[in-house]
Amino acid sequence: MNRLKCMRYSFLLMLLWPAFSRAQEHALVNTVNSKFAALSSVDMGAVHWTGGFWGERMNVCKTAMIPHLWRTYMDPQVSHAFKNFQIAAGLDTGSHAGPPFHDGDFYKLLEGVASLYALTKDPQLNAMMDSVIPVIARSQRADGYIHTPVMIAERHSKGGVKEFEDRLNFETYNMGHLMTAACVHYRATGKTSLLNVAIKAADYLDRFYKKASPELARNAICPSHYMGLIELYRTTKDPKYLQLARNLVNMRGYVDGGTDDNQDRVPFRRQNKAMGHAVRANYLYAGVADLYAETGDDSLLTCLNNIWKDVVYRKMYITGACGALYDGVSPYGVSYNPVEIQKTHQAYGRDYQLPNMTAHNETCANIGNMLWNWRMLQVTGNARYMDIVELALYNSVLSGISLDGDRFCYTNPLSVSDKYPYTLRWSGGRVKYISLSNCCPPNVVRTIAETAEYAYGISDKGLWVHLYGSNELNTHLKDGSALQLTQTTNYPWDGNIRLTVKAAGPQPFTVFLRIPGWCHKATVTVNGKSTAARVTPGQYAAVHRTWKAGDIITLQLPMPVTLMESNPLVEETRNQVAVKRGPIVYCLEGTDLPKGASLFDIVMTDKATLKPVPMQIDHSQVMALTGTVGLRADTGWQNTLYREAAVNDTKPVKVTFIPYYAWGNRGHTDMTVWVPKYFQYFGSQIQSQ
Question: The dihedral of CA 139, 141, 144, 149: what is its sign?
Fold first, then answer.
């Protein structure tokens, strides 16, 4: 029966494929028919990076990132991810190895390969996917259940192993990534081979949740399946997947034993603070945003808005990173009784609790921040969400992978020092394989493979330009008219952006240009002449006219070097500054200091000047900032906790700031984002008194 049902879906989808292609049904996050979404995305493959920053990153993705991860996951001596599917399918013998979310890691890699195929149409990528999908399909149980730890245990006839008995077993998390990867694979290739597996898994979940006990129904660790189910609904048009996603959100928090770490101690609609495990939280918020786009349930959007303000105004790092704490306790529990205090891990902390050296900031959490804000942008069309997408992408997401594309960071601290007296669970540096938790590498690689999908949007009014970079766009507007344009820019290293129309329909429409919140003197011209468009930081500038081939939009986004300070309630960075230019946050590495100088004796004086200078790090072009700052005399802190403060003890020293995302690519060294302020005027005044 299940096979007949999948065949029916396959036949229906194959019939509808040409119509879907014309109707922009192949976007990464497909909101083209979402009644409560203001925007939709262009189809996968409609945008190609042609050079500049993202052209370089995409080339590394093609030549290093995807090949490295594919070799990693196909080599059982390094990773058992694919070998687990072979064993579960009966094609090999052995036991399950690796974390319980290993299946999801492999699905994310498949999604990245499919996304890259949508851009390149490289037959080798297609063959790679075709070689593994039949094994995944063969491993799936007849009832649709698919989770290799349990299926392999069943093959070994181990008693007591049953699906969903361990709520930390990541079953629904893995299935959620399967659904998302399957939708992307279908949109990129037109094939239903992986989609059929996802449909069977979703049908299994639908049946399971209808009969499961309330306790079993709480198995929603890291709920990627909310996004997955809704994307599957958008692909198949089967309303039961949307209803299941709605039911899963509604049931959260209504069973005893929920935790703030898993965001299910209280019902979602009573939550207005970001809490607990940051990856789980951000995946939850992204899934709920997807649900709002389909249902228009204002109670969901109210909670999302309150939680967003809590994150952005009180709990997010300057790099867009999330999840300050390795371990902690929830500040939102109902009691201070030690027995009832709830432990959290890899989690959001208290308001303004943003340590630097011990910052956790898992790469997956930062990607989750992107996923959530991207969906909020689709729902509202508000530029503030795209500002966060850009901030996280350029800083705390790209920091999760080396410039050469084959070494990764699990955590993304804002300061690193060999003198720090504790050994953290994660190295804070780059490694080729994160043995205990390799979830971040395929996540960051699929994200980079999909960056072109974040560049543009479509609405009834016209074209929205979200992410700047040299590219070619070939798409259709809502009225069906063809639109082709090219974008030429060296962004994010400078703010000169030129969009040239290659083809457009006869009807007038609006081009919406995002003016980043950090840019205060932007200008827009069309064919060299000023426009009536209102240019406001943190909003879209709307340029409306009848467009023709040859029209040129010129957008100037000045990006001076800016010293940023934090709210004084952030104790660790009070009276310190961070350096930012455009969307890029900068850091200092010990590598760039004079011999013998300590990174933590650097101070930013009132006369400090920093200028942009092109630089190459590990064959990658970056824009560094060089200039003169202050270096305090190092009198030593051995066996000293406090001492009398020195005044006017600095001397000038030349330094080089590099983009934060590029730290750790030149060997092991200290690093910091925040630098103390040291203004000699005040020091002299204090001394004279």
Answer: negative
Alpha carbons within 13 angstroms on the beta-carbon side of residue 613 total 12
Residues 6+ apart with CB under 8 A from 404: 60, 64, 618, 619, 620, 665
Q: Please provide residue 426's backbone torsions phi and psi, each rounded to the nearest 5 degrees.
A: -115, 145
Residue 460 or 423, more confident: 460
Tokens standing for residue 168: 């930390």
Counting every residue written for the chain, the total comes to 689
SS3 of 181-195: the string is: HHHHHHHHHCCCHHH
Output the CA torsion sign for 304, 307, 312, 317.
negative
* Rounded CA separation 678/534 (Å): 39
Q: How much is the CA Rg of the chain, to the nearest whole Å?
A: 25
Q: Is the pLDDT of residue 686 over 50?
A: no
pTM beyond 0.85: yes
Annotate 118-174 with DSSP letters as a single string. HHH--HHHHHHHHHHHHHHHHHS-TTS---HHHHHHHHTT-TT--TTSSTTS-HHHH
d(CA 648, CA 681): 9
Question: Is 520 in contact with 80 (CB distance < 8 Å)?
Answer: no
Strand partners of residue 545? 509
DSSP 441-504: HHHHHHHHHTGGGGSEEEETTEEEE-S-SSEEEEEE-TTS-EEEEEEEE-TTS--EEEEEEEE-
State how far the Cα of 519 lies from the Cα of 413, in Å rounded to an integer: 27
The model's confidence at residue 25, banded by pLDDT at 50, 70 and 90, is confident
* Structure tokens belonging to residue 319: 């790099």
Instruction: Tell me the C-alpha to C-alpha distance, in Å, between residue 107 and each of 82, 104, 177.
Output: 10, 5, 6
Q: Give the span between the Cα atoms of 173 and 176, in whole angstroms.
A: 5
* Percentage of the chain exceeding pLDDT 90: 77
Nearest-5° angle of CA 414, CA 365, CA 426? Answer: 55
Paired tokens of 352: 């303004």
Question: How far is the C-alpha of 140 from the C-alpha of 162, rounded, in Å?
Answer: 15
Query: For 206, phi and psi rounded to 5 degrees?
Result: -60, -45
Determine the Cα–Cα distance for residues 650 and 632; give it in Å rounded to an integer: 4
